From TrEMBL:
Record-linked CDD domains: FBPase
Keyword Metal-binding in annotation: yes
Pfam families per the UniProt record, alphabetical: FBPase, FBPase_C
Protein name: Fructose-1,6-bisphosphatase class 1
Co-factor binding details: Binds 2 magnesium ions per subunit.
Lineage of producing organism: Bacteria, Pseudomonadati, Thermodesulfobacteriota, Desulfuromonadia, Geobacterales
UniProt cross-references to PROSITE patterns, sorted A to Z: FBPASE (PS00124)
Length: 314
């Protein structure tokens, strides 16, 4: 078969790549099921109702119809996968137990549609997934066995790691995920910064840190979508995303299980770092499924500098 236009030199599809990486059959199956589910989420994003669902989520936040629909798509796929025992979702009030026998099974925590409020203005959004061995998800993220995100942008891309490096797959015209980047590595320091939250609610230390980034010539790149904002920093290997503690929200906004642990896992696998300002994100023991945390994530030197500013060592 000749090279399709726009195809990559790899032409390796997702399942074949996973098998070549000697990943266990159950984990290969789970990752492929997540990839398959994302195709239905894409369809929902492109054609689904943009209105509100009239319900609220685990955090008491108003849900959009797309939040509920994409959550149902992910949950159905995972519960029928045959390899999942527990499911936690940013959009579900409580844990969904598929089976009480965790033997050989995984637990999955996901944000089915991060940035859902951006769909009605046609900005990029994504699905974020963290994978644990066995039943317990309230353990430090460092014990995860894998993480994935799918980015619904001009192209649909899937970025994953199971602890053997970070890989990007891009969806082709046949809706197959083919390998487009292997063993993604980040630079020690970068020149992009993505500051979440209202600037007027920044604490003096965070204000000083932003000024440090600006003084070193960093460019502000912030879309308001966690997945595209992280994807840009990860793939360019360049920069830092922060959503710090604000004067009125000491825990920040982003959710530890559904957003921060999976992204911290991927960024650390690519040689970057992620902290809450004191402790690595992956070393935090979640106090509950709804835990939020401040976050500084990206190039390791930029993250370390944030820690210095926050601990008065700048
Ligand atoms: P979600 O759509 O899953 O509720 O999450 C949105 C998050 C994340 O995508 C982004 O980084 C952050 O909200 C942006 O928050 P602000 O609009 O306060 O900057
Ligand atoms: Mn989210
Ligand atoms: Mn969400
Ligand atoms: Mn939401």
């Amino acid at each position: 078969m000749g090279k399709e236009p726009g195809t990559t030199k790899f032409q390796v599809d997702f399942r074949r790549h996973l098998r070549d990486q000697n990943i266990s059959g159950n984990l290969v199956h789970l990752l492929c099921e997540i990839a398959e589910a994302s195709k239905y989420v894409i369809n929902a994003v492109r054609t689904g109702d943009l209105g509100v669902a009239g319900t609220s989520n685990l955090y008491g936040e108003e849900q959009l119809a797309l939040d509920v629909l994409s959550d149902r798509i992910m949950r159905k796929r995972l519960m029928h996968s045959g390899v999942v025992c527990n499911i936690a979702s940013e959009e579900m009030d409580e844990i969904f137990q598929v089976t009480s026998n965790p033997q050989g099974m995984f637990s999955v925590a996901y944000d089915p549609l991060d940035g859902s409020s951006l769909v009605d203005v046609n900005l990029a959004v994504g699905t974020i997934v963290g994978i644990y061995q066995g039943a317990d998800m309230l353990q430090p993220g460092r014990r995860m066995v894998g993480a994935v995100y799918i980015l619904y942008g001009p192209r649909v891309s899937l970025v994953y790691s199971v602890g053997k490096g970070v890989y990007e797959f891009t969806m082709n015209q046949l809706m197959e995920f083919t390998l487009t980047r292997e063993d993604i590595r980040m630079k020690p320091s970068g020149n992009i910064y993505a500051p979440g939250g209202l600037r007027k609610k920044y604490t003096p230390e965070n204000e000083r840190y932003l000024r440090y980034l600006e003084d070193k010539g960093a460019k502000l790149r912030y879309s308001g979508g966690f997945v595209p904002d992280i994807n840009q920093i990860l793939l360019k290997g360049n920069g830092i995303f922060l959503y710090p503690a604000l004067t009125d929200t000491p825990q920040g906004k982003l959710r530890l299980l559904f957003e921060l642990n999976p992204m911290a896992y991927l960024v650390e696998q690519a040689g970057g770092a992620a902290t809450d300002g004191t402790t690595p994100i992956l070393d935090l023991t979640p106090g509950g499924y709804d835990q939020r945390s401040p976050v500084y994530i990206g190039c390791r030197d930029d993250v370390e500098k944030a820690r210095e500013f926050l601990n008065g060592n700048d």
